Amino acid sequence: MTESGASPEDPWVKVEYAYSDNSLDPDDEDSDYHQEAYKESYKDRRRRAHTQAEQKRRDAIKRGYDDLQTIVPTCQQQDFSIGSQKLSKAIVLQKTIDYIQFLHKEKKKQEEEVSTLRKDVTALKIMKVNYEQIVKAHQDNPHEGEDQVSDQVKFNVFQGIMDSLFQSFNASISVTSFQELSACVFSWIEEHCKPQTLREIVIGVLHQLKNQLY
Prior knowledge:
79% of the residues lie in helices and 0% in strands. The protein has 214 residues and is mostly helical. It has a domain at 155-211. The protein is elongated. Keywords: Activator, Coiled coil, Cytoplasm, DNA-binding, Nucleus, Phosphoprotein, Repressor, Transcription, Transcription regulation. Residues 1-61 are annotated as: Disordered.
């Protein structure tokens, strides 16, 4: 007959004890496996996302350099120093910088030309107004200015005054020495360039010129 109480030394009891131990639980082993797999999967996803982001960055930079070579005219010109080789990024950047500086100079030059043209336009507008006023004044007084003298007459008056002054200057100035020349010049000015003397010279020249004209 079987006894109601089981001895701890019974082999079946040992087996039950073994299965009841948490360290040997099959569910715990599966849980550790899934956690490790999740960690590996997360690392792979991060690595893949980083690789994709880096590739996008490289593609964007490449497109930028390709666009520069298309836009900048000097990048399209044949450079015999490098032959048929593809332009390096450094050369593309340098050519781009040079072209931008060229555009800045051209812009400044065009701005200066525009400023000059605006000044010319302003001057022409002023001349136009002046000529319109002259034409209007002539239309209002058609006989005005008929007795106006020419520039030649003005020059003859000036020439007559200078000739008269030079005659007295030549007769009064001594060139023996520079000191004597200086003294004679001041003396001549005080004597022959007085307002009254000049007035008499001008009256004489005008009288003589009037007789020649009429």
